[in-house]
Write a structure and sequence with these properties.
Layout: E1 6-16, E2 26-32, E3 44-49, E4 60-63, E5 66-67, E6 71-77, H1 81-87, E7 94-101, E8 113-118, H2 123-131, E9 138-144, H3 153-157, E10 161-166, H4 170-189, E11 193-197, H5 200-213, E12 216-220, E13 236-239, E14 244-246, H6 247-250, E15 253-255, E16 259-260
Parallel strand pairs: 8-9, 8-11, 9-10, 11-12
Antiparallel strand pairs: 1-2, 1-7, 2-6, 3-4, 3-7, 5-6, 12-15, 13-14, 13-16
């Protein structure tokens, strides 16, 4: 990544999304577009508000939810010190942003493609759906714990076939796993493509069923990151041959049979 890809940009808007137990737990952060040469769904950015100074040293990684040449939108869940501070940003505040980082999801316009999202893992699929030339070939499944309106599911399900299950009790988890197994088998049988993003247990389930049915599947990992450019080695995982690789530069998207989870 060149220095050209690191920019100070202005906050355009911070918008709460849905209703959950904690006010402002989910929100969209809209930033100035930083004159990128381009980006692809599945890539991410690192952001660090300039007023953090040395209080919070490292930036925070977020999937690019969408970008339209005028703004970049990030879909964020408030889960810690960094994201809670980001949620309090105001229009006009300045944020250092570097990216787009990492690789992207495979896109095969004529191939039936299944999008599997676990909670906040739905974020990169908004951009994927918006940029796909044949959204009629896409199907989305969302497994979530917070109310459905906390996620951009309604917007996406207007463009692609969508299905969701909320996890509120133990039997709901069984329903999620059984549905994922059925869908992955279906797409494996018809030579489809499976793309997934979510927490590690969700990714392990995708990987397990992809191996069982011989499905072509990609997983987007959510490892903790500090630099985003491969220098700090804080996000390493193991590839299919047991070698350590940086998720930020070699991923975050991996073929399911080429990474250890």
């Amino acid at each position: 990544m060149s220095l050209r890809n690191c920019r100070n940009v202005k906050v355009l808007e911070v918008s709460p999304v849905g209703q959950s137990k904690a006010a402002g737990e989910f929100f969209e952060l809209k930033l100035e577009y930083p004159d990128w040469d381009g980006w692809k769904p599945g890539q991410f950015v690192m952001i660090r508000p300039v007023d953090w100074e040395l209080d919070l040293l490292w930036g925070r990684p977020f999937s690019i939810c969408s970008a339209d040449g005028e703004s970049v939108t990030l879909f964020i869940q408030n889960v810690g010190r960094g994201t809670s501070r980001i949620a309090r940003l105001q229009p006009g505040d300045t944020v250092a942003m570097w990216g787009p980082l990492g690789n992207s999801f495979a896109m095969e316009p004529e191939t039936p493609t299944l999008l599997l999202a676990g909670g906040i893992g739905i974020a990169p699929f908004r951009g994927y759906v918006e940029s796909h030339p044949h959204p009629e070939n896409l199907q989305l499944f969302l497994a979530h714990r917070m109310p459905l309106e906390c996620y951009p599911f309604a917007t996406l399900s207007q463009k692609v076939e969508g299905q969701c299950i909320i996890e509120e009790k133990p039997e709901d988890l069984d329903a999620i796993i059984n549905t994922m197994r059925k869908l992955i088998q279906e797409y494996a049988d018809k030579g489809g493509l499976i793309l997934s993003c979510g927490p590690t247990p969700f990714m392990k389930t995708v990987q397990c069923f992809a191996k069982e049915f011989g499905a072509r599947a990609q997983v987007s990992l959510e490892n903790r990151m500090a630099c985003g450019v491969g220098a700090c080695l804080g996000c390493v995982t193991k590839d299919g041959e047991g070698h350590h690789v940086q998720v930020c530069t070699k991923g975050p998207v991996f073929w399911a049979d080429k990474v250890e989870l």
